[in-house]
Amino acid sequence: MRADKEAFIINRGIFFVQLPDLFMTASSSLSRNKSRSILTILGIVIGIAAVILMLSIGQSAQGLILNQVADLGSDLIFIEPSSGGDSSGPPSAFVEQTLKIDDAKALERSGLFMDVSSMIVSSMAVSRGEESKFSQVTGVTEGYLSIFPADVAEGRFIERSDVDSYARVAVLGKEIAQDLFGDQDPIGKEIKIKQTTVRVIGVLAEQGSRFFQNLDQRIAVPVTTAQRDIIGLDTVNFIAARTSQDIESAKDEIRWILRAEHDIDNPENDVKKDDFIVSSQSDAVEIIGIVGGVLTILLSSIAAISLVVGGIGIMNIMLVSVTERTKEIGLRKAVGATYSEILQQFLLEAVLLTMLGGIIGVLIGVITSRLAASILASYIEGWQSIVPMEAVVSGVVVATTVGIIFGLYPARRAAHLDPIEALRYE
Amino acid sequence: MSSSIPLIDLRDVKKQYINDGVATTVLHGVSFAIQEGEFVALMGPSGSGKSTLMHILGFLDRLTEGAYFFRGQDVSRLDDNALTAMRRDQVGFVFQAFHLLPKSSVIDNIMLPMMYVGVPRSERRKKAEQALDSVGLSHRTDHLSNQLSGGERQRVAIARALVNNPSLLFADEPTGNLDSKSGSDVLQLLQNLHTSGHTIIMVTHESEAAEHAERIIRIRDGLLVSDARDHARRQGSIYNK
């Protein structure tokens, strides 16, 4: 009996001999329904394009920040006040200010650090005559420029003697200088920060922005003057230091020095007991990496949802197509199409649809990413266009897989049709 | 009658359908043999079982009881793939409703069955053109099938049925959807094909159409009621089984 059956099946070589035929059949049936095909793949196109665009923007932003972090150097250590306890979670605006200028001086005295600068920052009204602007006023020490490098365009920067003598002097960013003085030379002229009159001693060269803050709109004053005369506080917002030794041991040194300064009894070196946080650039890089990873997971899940929705759309249209073409399927079976040949034909149609959707989606995603990058680059200095290659490749691969998964059920329905019933179908 | 093995040999074929647990017997035991080269008309009123019989003969359906020998080999219990292979390699179908793909060209329609047989691409068009020529429609090669008249469509369908050189041509009410002129053209074409050696089984309920065949098998209520050959009919005596 077995031998009989086999005798009737003419050997036709391997399974995929007909692949070009199937491909032509599938593509011609898709092109006969152009507008429907396009509408069907729209969900997949939009899903994939959106994910590539968002990943591109996310990675470009991440790259920008990482570059800026790298520009500052890996030997930079930041000390910020902390309420203690769990150091994770968002930075709070209501953290008790615990750092003082004396803390920075203690670090300086240790001789372990090349540069130490304490800083206090506050946004306030700055005026010259009728002209009034809001600016970020930064109380700094003479070490500021070695922490955050910038060129002095005119005049000089704040010196040690200015800090020690509570001098009422200010160094302007390039843009705020232009806003207040126009074409005039600001050196030697007076401006008012809140109610305090200070004399401009210098203007910094253009710096652009860092971490999305415009540095050219800032005004630097001696930290002592800022504390006593302008802001009215005896604390500082943070202290920055550079070290030439190993970062981790330098961080530990800072902790021991500040604990002594703050009378904190913490022999077990438990950072949660401190009223400050010591962090280095590598910590920042790590956090940026975590944020980037979370962003990618988030976008991937949105992509997954949109692709499932798109896949259901494909399945729906393929089922309609199978019903519409019942007679065609009946005829194909009558003239000798096997179950697997019908299955392959309809599966290939679904896969061609989604693969096309994936390719179009990738193209649109790449084009809009480049467009967005060129727009953003004109606003944000150093913004680079990053189109993640893995997203491009996985976009097409995933779309194709969606076609296989959601095309299988309609294709099986088609392949299972009984030729007699199918030919009679009205 | 020649001593060679008949092309078709049906022995007490029964067919039963089960719908919602109710069994309906459509064929109650039909036996006959058809030799290669015959032109047979299968007649009977609607509901007689003639369509079911054609489906079984054409490997579209299976019998429930009995045996079906095709060229001496038992094909009664073939599985789906084997039946498909039989349809593909042994038979050509002509349907009442033509069943051409409406948005495809005439030549594409005729080439369709060759795809499943695995005829190399390069040979398909030539074979299809030959088949189209044999039904006298060479001038319609690249027309869309829905631009043709009914008679032309049926001739295209005949070309499609012939393109793989089947052992057997089935025509299921081939004139049912045609006016009498086109219908007689199609019947004349079938007769010519028979003359040139094709084996043809035509299902019809029209006596005029059946007159073109050299043998008429009549079915009623799932039983064979008569099987008459040309010479017998001409002599006016009907052989009753």
Give a structural overview:
The complex is a heterodimer of chains A (426) and B (241). Chain A has 426 residues and is α+β, with helices and mostly antiparallel strands. Helix content of chain A is 56%, strand content 17%. In chain A, strand 8 and strand 9 (213-214) form a beta hairpin. Chain A is elongated, with a radius of gyration of 34 Å. Chain B has one domain: P-loop containing nucleotide triphosphate hydrolases (Rossmann fold). Classes of the chains: A alpha+beta (426), B alpha/beta (241).
Number of domains of chain B: 1
Overall geometry of chain B: globular
Q: Proportion of β residues of chain B?
A: 25-35%
SSE topology string of chain A: HHHEHEEHEHEHEEEEEHEHEHHHHH
Total of DSSP H or I helical runs spanning 4+ residues of chain B: 8
- Strand adjacency order, main sheet of chain A: 2-3-10-5-7-6
As residue ranges, the low-confidence spans of chain B are 237-241
Which chains share the greatest interface? Answer: A-B, 31 and 32 residues
Spatial order of the strands in the main sheet of chain B?
6-7-8-3-9-10
Task: State the end-to-end CA separation of chain A.
Answer: 38 Å
CATH first level of chain B? Alpha Beta
Estimated structural class of chain A: alpha+beta
Order of helices and strands of chain B: EEEHEEHEHHHEHEHEEH
Largest sheet of chain B: 6 strands, mixed
Oligomer: heterodimer
Helix content of chain A: 55-70%
Class by SSE composition of chain B: alpha/beta
Per the CATH scheme, the topology name of chain B is Rossmann fold
* Number of strand segments of chain B: 10
Keywords:
heterodimer, A: 426 residues, alpha+beta, 2 domains, two-stranded antiparallel ribbon, B: 241 residues, 6-stranded mixed beta sheet, 27% strand, globular, ATP-binding (chain B), P-loop_NTPase (chain B), ABC_transporter-like_CS (chain B), transmembrane transporter activity (chain B), ABC_transpr_LolD-like (chain B)
